[in-house]
Design goal:
Organism: Halanaerobium congolense
Pfam families: PTS-HPr (PF00381)
Number of domains: 1
Subcellular location: Cytoplasm
CATH superfamily: HPr-like
Radius of gyration: 12 Å
Keywords: Cytoplasm, Phosphotransferase system
Largest sheet: 4 strands, antiparallel
Structural class: alpha+beta
Shape: globular
GO biological process, one term: phosphoenolpyruvate-dependent sugar phosphotransferase system
Helix content: 40-55%
Strand content: 25-35%
CATH topology: Histidine-containing Protein, Chain: A
CATH class: Alpha Beta
Number of strands: 4
Strand order of the largest sheet: 1-4-2-3
C-alpha cells in the first residue's frame, strides 16, 4: 500500500547540494520505493541526480510517496528530516 505526505521545504538552501545528498543517503536506508513529486515531475528519492534535477528551493511544496514494507517509517523519517532537521541546521 502506498503512503503519501505533502510537506513544505523551509530551509534556506532547499534540497540542493548537501541537503540533497543527506536526503538521498537517508532515503537509501529503506527498502521501500520512495519518490518525490514536485511541479508534476516524479523522481526516485534515492537518486541524487533526479533530486537535483527538480530544483527544489525554499518554500517549495513537495509530495513524498513510498511503497513497501517500511514505507510508513520512510515517509515519517524523510518528512521529519526536511521539516525539522534541515531547519535546525540553518541556525
Amino acid at each position: 500500500m502506498e503512503k503519501e505526505k505533502t510537506i513544505k521545504v523551509m530551509n534556506e538552501t532547499g534540497l540542493h547540494a548537501r541537503p540533497a545528498s543527506q536526503f538521498v543517503k537517508k532515503a537509501s536506508k529503506y527498502k521501500a520505493e520512495t519518490t518525490i513529486v514536485f511541479e508534476g515531475k516524479e523522481v526516485n528519492a534515492k537518486s541524487i541526480m533526479g533530486l537535483m534535477s527538480l530544483g527544489i528551493s525554499k518554500g517549495s511544496q513537495i509530495t513524498l510517496k513510498s511503497e513497501g514494507e517500511d514505507a510508513n517509517k520512510a515517509i515519517s523519517d524523510l518528512a521529519e528530516f526536511v521539516e525539522v532537521t534541515l531547519l535546525e541546521e540553518d541556525h
